[in-house]
Amino acid sequence: MAEIVLGIGISHSPQLSTPTEVWERHAERDRSQSALLGTDGEFHTYDELLARAEPGLADALTPRIWEEQYARSQAGIERIADELAAAQADVVVVFGDDQHELFLDDGIPAFALSLSDSLWDYPPSPEQLASLPSGLAEASWAQHSPQPDQYRGHPELNGHVARCLTDAGFDLCVLRKQPEGRSLGHAYTFVRRRLGLTSETTVMPVFLNTYFMPNVPSVERCYDFGRHLARAVEEWPEPLRVAVVASGGLSHFVVDEALDRGVLEALRHDDLPLLQDITKGKMRSGTSEVLNWVAAAGALKGRPMEVLDYIPAYRTPAGTGIGMGFCLWRQGVLRK
After folding, report:
1. Cα–Cα 20 to 30 A to 38, which of 54, 95, 114, 315?
2. DSSP strands (E only) in the chain
3. What is the phi/psi pair of residue 81, to 5°?
């Protein structure tokens, strides 16, 4: 039987993959935005957020603090990469969200799996790199290979999982071929490129639509989806070692420490009702990637979760930035 041997929660922000001298460019990008999701669950301009921000936020923008946060984030990535290597996983299931990479407006599924034997990461062209907003080109190395890169799939396992999820009442989109000219998204490629997965490791990208209304699934639906997916994986008759990864989040592009800490506490205690208390208004924009963690928590239900680190990485006095999370679910039984 297949066995889930490790769970991981990790942010994938470009800020994680750029030195602190580039963080100011991410801040410039924030200042140009007209719709930033605030901690009140409403969208605001940058100037509106700045007018209502706590004055003390500016104290978190010093070079010393940024260097300390960068060092902690790299240590978190290294620790998780070491744990993943030690787990010797045959298959890595990655819960992530596609942001107009593989799925465009011709079809955005709530849940999707690939049934092909491989998916490809296609690097941006020099022209595309040059057109990226400030700070993003410098982080591209962590999101795309310099040349087309193949991700090995497992069509038989994925087909089994798709059948089981359909039988459980999930209306699932399946891909048998990759749309021409479209790349596997950064939620999945980050995991391979920053966590050291080799080309021999099978990757199961699990696509959740967290970003694009109106078919964003609820917290409860994502949790149940993960739970049923794990059950299907564990029913697979071959002896596979499986790791589960939640890619993305936490709060961004405005840091919401209360939300992040509440989510991590709920996940640590496997407390679905507490997660369900999060308002839909807050589960939008980049913060919506918390749903990837919720789905992973469903897949890892009953296992103890450890928060390795949480870093509220502010980059402007208006409170913009990213809540960086680094977590592990281990084998064993959660004791509440």
Report:
1. 95
2. 3-10, 36-37, 43-44, 91-96, 111-114, 118-121, 149-152, 173-175, 202-208, 241-247, 305-314, 321-329
3. -60, -40
What is the spatial distance between Cα 265 and Cα 255, in angstroms, rounded to a whole number? 17
Count Cα neighbours of 85 within 13 Å in the Cβ-side half-sphere. 11
Cβ proximity of 212 and 108 under 8 Å: yes
First to last CA, the chain: 28
Nearest to 76 by CA among 324, 331, 329: 324
Give the tokens for residue 319: 């409170």
If the chain, 336 residues long, is cut into consecutive pieces of 10 residues, what is the mean pLDDT of each piece?
A: 97 97 96 96 97 93 98 98 98 98 97 98 93 92 96 98 98 96 97 96 98 96 98 97 98 98 97 92 96 98 96 98 97 69
* Tokens representing residue 71 in the block: 């060092």
- Two structure tokens written together for 180: 């021409």
DSSP for residue 61: -
Give residue for tokens 């996940």.
267
Nearest CA among 170, 331, 145, 336 for reference residue 243: 331
Name the amino acid, one letter, at 258: A
CA distance to 14, 24, 25, 279, per residue, from 19 (Å): 10, 10, 11, 34
Distance CA 282, CA 266 (A): 16
Q: Give the position of tokens 């208004």.
A: 281
Q: Say if residues 293 and 249 touch (Cβ distance below 8 Å).
A: yes
CA distances from 332 to 303, 304, 329 (A): 6, 7, 9
Helix spans in 97-176 (H): 126-131, 136-139, 155-167
List, in sequence order, every residue forming a beta bridge with 310; answer none if it has no partner. Answer: 325
H-helix or E-strand spanning residue 139: helix 136-139
Give me the residue label for tokens 């990213």.
322
